[in-house]
Amino acid sequence: MNYLVGIDVGTSATKTVLFDEGGNVIAWASKEYPLYQPENGWAEQRPEDWRDAVLETLKEVMERSGAAPGDVKSIGLSGQMHGLVMLDEEGQVIRPSIIWCDQRTGREVEDMLSIMPRERWIQITANPPLTGWTAAKILWVRKHEPENYRRCRRILLPKDYIRYVLTGVFATEVSDASGMQLLDVPGRCWSGEVLEKLDIPEAWLGKVYESCQITGRLLPEIAGKVGMDAATAVVGGAGDNAAAAVGTGVVKDGRAFTTIGTSGVVFAHSSQVAIDPEGRVHTCCCAVPGAWHVMGVTQGAGLSLKWMKDNFCEDYSLQARAEGRDVYDFINRDVENVPPGSSRLIYLPYLMGERTPHLDADCRGVFFGLSAIHTRAHVLRSVMEGVAYSLCDCNDILKEMGIGVETMMACGGGGKSPVWRQMLSDLYKCSVQTVKQSEGPALGAAILAGVGCGVYESVEKACEMLISPETLCEPRQREAEVYESYHRLYRRLYGALKEEFQELSALR
User: Fold this and answer.
1) Which ranges of 89-173 would DSSP assign to H, the alpha helix?
2) Phi, psi (deg, nearest 5) at residue 212
């Protein structure tokens, strides 16, 4: 029996899954780690925590499965995008990684716009300069931590640091590299023009592969430590969203997915390069060779509901632990009893600034319309609706760009909520579907691994064979009309508060 491994280096935890050729889960393991916020709007993690989590979970799945070392043919990597990992001459981590949701780089984005016009950035990298993306973080370190910058000899993304740990190879692949703001996205290679303008040596960056190409094999000492064979291949893999697309079968035109994890994403496949000239959504190379994807991002999606749970729902947590259930089951139960619109309460999900459609690092979360009539259940529902309004903004832009979506899949932790899926269906005015396979990015990474080592003929053929639909939500007319009114008001609130957000950010 041939086995494949998918490793997903997420923001809250790393999940490692061992699959058979039929896409069935044989064993899995997960390990959490902390997120550090040294200042308001900052977000960092220790790459060493990712390393330890990967090695521990790899060893655990091998022990649980009983698979022989030589039975695992290939490993695929997925992970959070945009994080900056800096290594010195000896390959040691220089500083904690500045991760995707960090918003400290507003000045550096301004510097990038002074170096090259916004329109040129969009032409080359398919996106305007962004605070959460890697290039601005590199400039921030150069400006604020010159000693660390002088020590730097390698720049990697989170999952590509794991590749280096496993194989000793410095490499990346097109989907994740697209989110660095250093890649020529239409050309699928590093941009010499961008690197020259930013004065970043190309030698610091890894070789760029397609997502299903083999990039290296396990180091003997790593293979021995985790119970695998040194001949095990490691393929390019993909950024978390590109891997999730493969894991949900979104690998052809007309297909899209919405994921609600820590952040939220509306992601559509495209066989042609499609770039929004206003830069409101992101175009990246996707994990299917020769294709791209367009996605809008809500920074504080599942994060918003988790923030509510952690700070105001201790009784739910206690009950969940006592009954051995998921705490979100109790949240969904109470939210379902609140009418659409949450009795005229609207939430703006800007806990970590916002990307689509505002590209504003300074905006922050808001409850609008809070009244003595509102209960905790109203507040919780308004949080879920606010995230859904933001995701609807993303979907509306895809429609403007002429990207037709025939099938919208739902995935991520929030995608498991029938209440949230119904909100999305009502707002999108289309069916929202889930798939039986729930491993998302890990499965996508494993499929790419299988293509790389010849287990599957292609990404598309593998998805046809392995991915099967499950639940289906259809839009409801009355609720859709209610949400359309609320969404119109929601969209106006940002414009009304934009200057106040900037003033707030300047306060000390």
Assistant:
1) 106-115, 118-125, 134-144, 146-151, 158-167
2) -105, 15
CB 225 within 8 A of CB 59: yes
Tokens of 290: 């020769």
Evaluate whether 255 touches 409 at the Cβ level (below 8 Å): yes
User: 16, 28 in Cβ contact below 8 A?
Assistant: yes
Q: Are strands 207-209 and 25-32 parallel, antiparallel or unpaired?
A: unpaired
The separation between CA 472 and the C-alpha centre of its own chain, rounded to angstroms, equals 24
For the chain, the helix, strand and coil percentages under 3-state DSSP, each to the nearest 5: 45, 20, 35
Q: In the prediction, which pLDDT does 404 show?
A: 80
Alpha helix (H) residue ranges in 336-471: 376-400, 412-415, 418-428, 441-452, 459-466
Q: How far apart are the C-alpha atoms of 108 and 24, rounded to whole Å? A: 45
Q: Please state whether the peptide bond connecting residue 128 to the residue before it is cis, i.e. omega within 30 degrees of 0.
A: no
In contact, 56 and 14? CB cutoff 8 Å: no
Q: For the ranges 50-59, 366-375, 413-422, which has the lowest average pLDDT?
A: 413-422
Reading the block at residue 363, the tokens are 């905006």
List 78's β-bridge partners, or say none: 8, 238
What are the CB-based long-range contacts (under 8 Å, 24+) for 182-189? 182/125, 182/134, 182/135, 183/125, 183/208, 183/285, 184/124, 184/125, 185/124, 185/125, 185/126, 185/127, 185/273, 185/283, 185/284, 185/285, 185/292, 186/126, 186/273, 188/285
Amino acid (1-letter code) at residue 347: Y
Q: Which residue in this structure is represented by tokens 């598309």? A: 460
Place of tokens 């809250």: 12
Alpha helices, DSSP H, located in 250-370: 302-312, 314-323, 327-335
Which residue, 1, 61, 71, 76, is CA-closest to 26?
Answer: 61
- CA–CA–CA angle 179, 77, 279 (5° rounding): 15
Instruction: Report how far residue 2's alpha carbon sits from residue 15's, in angstroms, rounded to the nearest whole number.
Output: 20
> What tokens appear for 207 in the block?
């070789």
- Quickly count: other Cβ atoms within 10 Å of residue 7's Cβ: 30
d(CA 260, CA 42): 21
Closest CA to 166 of 65, 51, 88: 51
Could you read off the pLDDT of 150-190 as tens digits, one per residue? Answer: 999 999 999 999 999 999 999 999 999 999 999 999 999 99
Nearest alpha-carbon partner for 435 in 398, 401, 408, 402: 408
Using CA atoms, how far apart are residues 453 and 451, in angstroms rounded to an integer?
6
Q: Give mean pLDDT, residues 41-48.
A: 96
Look at residues 226, 267, 213 and name the one whose alpha carbon lies nearest to residue 245.
267
What value, to the nearest 5°, has the Cα angle with vertex 121 and ends 262 and 495? 55
Task: Return the active site residues.
Answer: 240
